């Protein structure tokens, strides 16, 4: 029996299953905030710990004993027959995926070491994928297939709901009614559930919390979150259970089904900092229900919603630094699930999660949940605060890699952050989501690269001007093409989200989009992508006014539980049901660098419209450039290496200017008076200098000091070399 008092911590729980390689950030954000309020907390990632429990020699022994020799598929029978090999190798493989047993890569890459079943039929393209990437990545991919074989066996034999990062996901997707979930939860605990509840019991006995907060970020966490709540309410009836997270924020805003509250006492919406602090105050006796914020609860058998609208939003500068303490940071598993360079970033490596700004600075896309707080309310953080947090989190976790989880990182905020990183001489690596807009100039992309940016992802969505306008993307195709070119030329990997089937989109427009994507891959502007079928959501402009977009809603009446995805009929567009496979096949080949010379028709087994896009469309958009007059308001910065002014060359009246780059030394011979002028300018344009020096001032000062026209100098050979090696206009 647990004994609780006012010093009991709040226990923050991430239920199965999220990413294997890094903790999901919501609980670290909450813990960091509650630290600022002096509220004791503990956090556990049961998503990771359940995986480590099952995928161990002990866990697999129990799995195979439980499965027995029941009726299995041929693949299941093979895995069962090799059970001794699996139990012999599993601990070593997990240690390898945790970065501890790295020399095992030699054995994993040999065909005879890992037991192999159905998933290894996917290995025919490994030489293309890993020929340049190295043996360790190849071994990581093979080890991932090995785990997926075991996952298939577990799902077939003892737990039909199992799936890495998608546990019982079908129960949470478009679950208008709670009926199916209630029926599943009424069944005895599954094999996975017993590991979950066993670990949960350990944590409850270790921390003695009076409040347990469980996050539900995705549909694949819903079932296990409810199992956690059910277990706590049954075995620890004095403990308060609260739930929240991304799934609740988008799917459960219209909740009326009282059965949900058999598994939790409260459901919190949107940013959790204010709702949970008010809830803690309420539970511990200092606040009545009227003071709760964005909180569902059960009163007199009915679901009620409390929201003290007078409560002030907590500013981003006051939410605290995400706190990773208590997590098993050295035990996360880096896998390579599919051969895609951006997906490798998502699943491989331990990334600190951080936010530049709350909400989206654009927030107008018609397919997006723009009416919800996480998109609608835009509030940027201060640059100093962001970089301070990066430094503190690097110290705490020992990792200098950051994934900015913004909906779309603001370009000007990124610019100032990059300059601050350079000023502080920080060595970090970072990536995040952006909009492909014209603010990302070639020089800004070079600055971001210098500060540690390695990749960006963003929505190309539909490479059709008409549909882009319907989407209200705020980006034109020429802007999009030039921006991806800028990132790629700077050495930053580009991943694109691609959409098909937007309302009223014709088959020809989708084929035109594919042709633009083909050209962008062929020109090297993008390195990774993924086609998504358009889904209408209840909180988007399309979902709220479907008739304006030529659609008709076909979903049945709301069943009282979840509502987000909206079933609809497109009354004007083409039949996109058949296009998905061909789009995916083409993209798979384009990412491999092949198939560019094949007609688009080759990817489809039915007749498609002929593309109307010019074969040189992308190339022509890349050739555009800005006049220098448009650049006058921009600031000059030097981010290159040491600049050394040598002795005067007497005969020619020139001075040797040496640029010490990280890879080589560059020697420029420049007229003496120009070299002296540049020497003064370089002292004024380093990243350490706070006062901006504008190009228009540079032009004026040059013509005043040198008595020559500026434009020939600006476009001359010497200036082009300086620009290439670190002279930026921002």
Query: Treating each run of at least 4 consecutive H or I residues as one helix, how many helices?
Result: 30
Looking at the chains present, what oligomeric state does this protein adopt? single chain
User: Using DSSP, what is the number of strands?
Assistant: 22
Radius of gyration from the alpha-carbon trace, in angstroms = 28 Å
User: What is the approximate shape?
Assistant: globular
Residue ranges: pLDDT <50 for 5 or more in a row? 1-5
Give the helix level as a range of percent: 40-55%
Kindly report the spatial arrangement of strands forming the biggest sheet: 2-1-3-4-5-6-7
**Termini, distance in Å?**
63 Å
What percent strand? Answer: 5-15%
Structural class: alpha/beta
State the major sheet. 7 strands, mixed
User: What would the average pLDDT be, to the nearest integer?
Assistant: 90
What is the structure about, briefly put?
By secondary structure, this protein is of the alpha/beta class. It has 30 helices and 22 strands. Helix 3 (57-67) packs antiparallel against helix 5 and helix 17 packs across helix 18 (411-423).
């Amino acid at each position: 029996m647990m004994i609780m008092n006012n010093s009991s911590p709040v226990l923050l729980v991430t239920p199965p299953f999220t990413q294997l390689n890094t903790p999901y950030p919501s609980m670290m954000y909450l813990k960091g905030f509650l630290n600022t309020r002096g509220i004791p907390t503990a956090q556990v990632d049961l998503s990771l710990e359940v995986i480590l429990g099952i995928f161990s020699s002990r866990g697999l022994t129990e799995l195979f004993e439980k499965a027995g020799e029941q009726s299995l598929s041929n693949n299941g029978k093979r895995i069962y027959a090799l059970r001794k090999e699996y139990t012999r190798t599993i601990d070593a493989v997990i240690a390898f995926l945790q970065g501890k047993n790295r020399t095992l890569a030699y054995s994993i890459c040999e065909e005879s070491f890992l037991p192999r079943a159905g998933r290894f039929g996917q290995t025919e393209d490994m030489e293309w994928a890993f020929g340049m990437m190295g043996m360790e990545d190849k071994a990581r991919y093979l080890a991932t297939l090995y785990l997926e074989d075991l996952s298939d066996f577990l799902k077939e034999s003892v737990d039909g709901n199992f799936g890495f990062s998608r546990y019982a996901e079908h129960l949470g997707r478009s679950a208008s009614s709670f009926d199916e979930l209630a029926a599943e939860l009424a069944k005895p605990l599954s094999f996975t559930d017993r590991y979950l509840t066993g670990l949960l019991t350990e944590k409850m006995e270790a921390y003695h919390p009076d409040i347990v907060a469980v996050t539900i970020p995705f549909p694949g966490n819903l079932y296990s979150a409810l199992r956690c709540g059910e277990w706590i309410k049954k075995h620890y009836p004095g403990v308060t259970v609260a739930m929240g997270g991304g799934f609740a924020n988008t799917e459960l805003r219209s909740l009326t089904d009282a059965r949900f509250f058999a598994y939790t006492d409260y459901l919190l919406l949107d940013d959790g900092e204010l709702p949970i602090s008010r809830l803690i105050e309420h539970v511990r006796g200092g606040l009545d229900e009227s003071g709760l914020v964005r909180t569902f609860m059960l009163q007199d058998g009915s679901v009620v919603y409390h929201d003290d609208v007078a409560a002030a939003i907590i500013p981003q500068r006051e939410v605290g630094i995400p706190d990773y303490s208590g997590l098993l940071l050295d035990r996360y598993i880096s896998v390579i699930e599919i051969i895609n360079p951006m997906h490798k970033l998502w699943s491989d490596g331990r990334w600190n999660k951080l936010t530049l700004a709350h909400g989206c600075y654009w927030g107008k896309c018609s397919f997006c949940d723009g009416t919800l707080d996480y998109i609608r309310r835009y509030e940027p953080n201060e640059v100093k605060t962001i970089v301070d947090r990066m430094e503190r989190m690097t110290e705490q976790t020992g990792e200098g890699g950051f994934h900015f989880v913004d909906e779309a990182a603001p370009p000007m905020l990124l610019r100032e952050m990059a300059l601050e990183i350079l000023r502080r001489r920080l060595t970090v690596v970072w990536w995040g989501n952006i909009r492909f807009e014209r603010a990302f100039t070639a020089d800004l992309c070079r600055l971001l690269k210098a500060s540690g940016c390695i990749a960006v992802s963003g929505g190309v969505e539909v490479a059709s001007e008409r549909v882009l306008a319907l989407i209200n993307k705020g980006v034109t195709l020429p802007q999009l093409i030039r921006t991806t070119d800028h990132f790629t030329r700077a050495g930053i990997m580009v991943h694109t989200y691609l959409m098909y089937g937007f309302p009223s989109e014709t088959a020809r427009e989708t084929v035109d989009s594919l042709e633009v994507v083909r050209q962008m891959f062929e020109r090297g502007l993008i390195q990774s992508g993924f086609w998504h079928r358009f889904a209408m959501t209840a909180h988007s402009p399309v979902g709220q006014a479907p008739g304006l977009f030529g659609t008709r809603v076909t979903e049945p009446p709301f069943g009282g539980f979840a509502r987000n995805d909206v079933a609809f009929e497109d009354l004007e567009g083409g039949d996109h049901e058949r296009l998905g496979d061909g789009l995916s096949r083409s993209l798979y080949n384009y990412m491999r660098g092949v198939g560019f010379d094949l007609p688009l028709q080759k990817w489809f087994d039915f007749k498609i419209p002929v593309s109307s896009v010019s074969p040189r469309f992308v190339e022509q958009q890349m050739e555009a450039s800005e006049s220098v007059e448009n650049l006058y308001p921009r600031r000059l910065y030097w981010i290159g290496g040491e600049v050394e002014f040598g002795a005067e060359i007497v005969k020619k009246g020139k001075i040797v200017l040496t640029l010490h780059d990280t890879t080589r030394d560059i020697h420029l011979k420049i007229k003496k008076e120009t070299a002296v002028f540049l020497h003064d300018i370089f002292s004024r344009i380093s990243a350490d200098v706070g006062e901006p020096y504008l190009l228009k001032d540079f032009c004026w000062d040059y013509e005043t000091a040198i008595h020559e026209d500026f434009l020939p100098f600006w476009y001359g050979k010497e200036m082009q070399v300086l620009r290439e090696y670190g002279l930026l206009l921002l």
